[in-house]
Queue: 3 jobs
Job 1
Amino acid sequence: MYTILGVIAKPLGWLLGFLYNFLSDYGITIIIFTIIVKMCLYPLYIKQTKSMARMSEVQPKMLALQRKYANDKETLNIKMAELYKEEKFNPMGGCLPMLIQMPIIMGLFALLRQPMEYMTNDDTMLFAVHEEFLWIMDLSQPDKWILPILAGIATFIAFSMNQQQQEEATGTAAQMNGMMKMMKYIFPIMIVWMGRSFPSGLALYWALGQIMQIFFNIHLKSVRNKLKEESKKKKK
């Protein structure tokens, strides 16, 4: 795991150091760094949205096959494979962007939690991580309330929007189990709790990243609606 994190965190550490050399403010550097990373991940969100839009189109046919071959799993698998091929649909298409994002997010956490471990060992960055920013006296130390609560609220909103997007795309709102519904509340609480022990720089990254995700989700919803309209026009 350390090797994998290092492979990802090292180049991200180079970018963080490169930005700091220009900005000379660690707090501003983390903000610009967050914006760059999130914008680089945006094409993956678009791809995921398109895949989920295709899922909503294929879903009725999938359910029809499942009802028809409910007692014949082997035939069902064959028919489902034929459906995917006919519709040119990859059921893993919605998962792939998330699988790509996860190691990047883990690498970012490792970098911002222990920046000097993955950055060039120079005196400049050694002092930079201890700079103050706004009300925070030392970005390497935890902010006990403001950033964690902001991160928790932003996470709750972004998570809820993601969940709604998935429900609308797959039509499985009624089938969603209690655990998934509870995660909408549990995950933000975990973020607040962990944020109170993480360095302020990491909490700042997560809070800003989730705020950006909210705006991404608003835009992605319009993209999804546009795809639905295009699909309806094709059927006509």
Note: The chain has nine helices and no strands.
Job 2
Amino acid sequence: MTIAQTGDQNYSEYSVKYGDGNDLDVSVEGSSNRTRFSIDADWGSVSSSNVLSVDKDGDTNYFTGSIKGSSNTVNVTQDGDGNRIGTDWYTKDGISIVGDGNSATVMQKSDMNSASVTVTGSGNMATVTQN
């Protein structure tokens, strides 16, 4: 699924619950946009092999969310000043990964950006690059 959002001060939320093999590609252009995601599983079930790719272009954008499951991938690119991953929009706080074999890759370009990534489990990978 591909989602494109243009403008300022937009709010969006993406969620996969008890799902496998989903691919979500999100493009957001504008400033002060908030995005929250959840790839979740409970009650003896797992969400696995899901891919979330988010590309945000603009200033003071927020991104936060969590993964529970295995072999899930989150890729986030934010281009602009004062962008954050974590501590707002209503906060999971940053990218939080619980499970095995998951990965998160964050690329933030420009000035005054911040990112928080927490990983629990085995075989997980988190990469944060800020230019």
Note: DSSP finds no helices and 14 strands in the chain.
Job 3
Amino acid sequence: QMEPTEEQENLANYLNELGAEVVIGSHPHVIEPAKVIKGKKQDTLVYYSLGNYTSAQDMDITMVGGMASFTLNYDPDTKKTSFTDTKFIPLITWFDVGYNAWKTYPIEDYNDFSKEWVQQFVQSVMQDCDGVEVVLE
């Protein structure tokens, strides 16, 4: 599924309460939204799932993954971190019919006829990424 489960959201909120700065999820084989959880102790940057970096899974939604990009800043006076330049950068896996060759492309280098579908798919999943820029070009 392309949205976090209640268990994932509860765990992200719990980790925020403990003071976690960043949570990066994986394993669902599909992308899920990202956001910044505002907390009393610390804000937490959460990427619920980056999907597959590369795989031989041939469903369109499993061929789109993502890369987290951010700058983590630490203030020694307040002992808190902040985030700048937070991004989700789509990655697309391409492979030939026999699975003999494959490559993972960042969205900016992907020039296939399906790029528009990838952009629309990523936008539909990542639509409310509070505090995270979704790179579509």
Note: The chain is about 20% helix and 40% strand.
